[in-house]
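1st attempt posting a full record on here, be nice pls
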Amino acid sequence: MSVAHQYFLDVILPLPLERIFTYAITKAEADFIKPGVRVSVPFGKNKIYTSIALKLHAEAPTAYEVKSIHSILDKSPIVNEYQIQLWQWISEYYMASLGDVLRAALPSALILESETVVGVASEEGLKNINLTDEQFLVFEALQQQSRLKVQEIQAIVNKKNILPILTPLLEAKVLTTTQNLIEKFKPKLVRCICISDTYNCSEAMSKLEAQLKRSNKLKSIVLTYFSIATNGKKVTVADLKRLSNASSTQIKTLIDRGVFRDYFIEVDRLKFENTKTSKAFDLSKAQSEAFAAINHSLDTKAVCLFHGVTSSGKTEIYIKKIESILKQGKQV
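the predicted structure (as tokens):
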């Protein structure tokens, strides 16, 4: 049975999302929450994020089923309305999501989330705080293991929402947080092939030729390999298959028989072999006059305003000016 909600809250999530998400709140929460307060909210199947309250209203979202917030983390706003307005301006001007701006603007300790790793910062702060049973369990666990993920702490205290448990410890500087960074870059690997050491001599080649005498196709593949592998050139499996009209199964047969050995090399995803180097150019008469006028203006002033319509040749003049400055040993 669904519950009809009357109060809703728009929040900024610390995620690169193009939209603002709305959550349901109670009347008591609506009376307490002010824009700029941190609110822990569920997102996805099992993730919890610290968000910033943006706007309270009474309009339910229609594109998705609304969820309720987990808890309110602050008694008063940690971000004022002018800061939020600045974030919105940065988001629009630099075409970045509000979530990206939020993550850049706030310290990581203030935006605790499921991917956060928690560790002990100092035990001095324990003198000024009375630990709850759950906080004591977390601290004891960190004595045994220097770092714990948020998911591991959730299992220790048997609670999904642990932000209210950790926040006082973070504010007292008993705990510290870091973010797990996932390496998303994967190098591009190309499968290459070479003749095995067993057949890497003239005597062995005669033996190999006799071994492949009954299989003209395999013999043709080997001969194609030697025609490609000149001057130590690396032979890729793709090139060998294409030039010899071979199948993957036939290449694998030669590898299984010990004739070939395959290996991988890392290659650059961006290829610049065919990039043409721009040639030197001469300025037109109008460009030369403008170039001379700019130089004359900059002899007496620090700033020169250069106006020209689109495609009038301003870029070539910029390049010539940059060249002249670099030749003087200066920087641009």
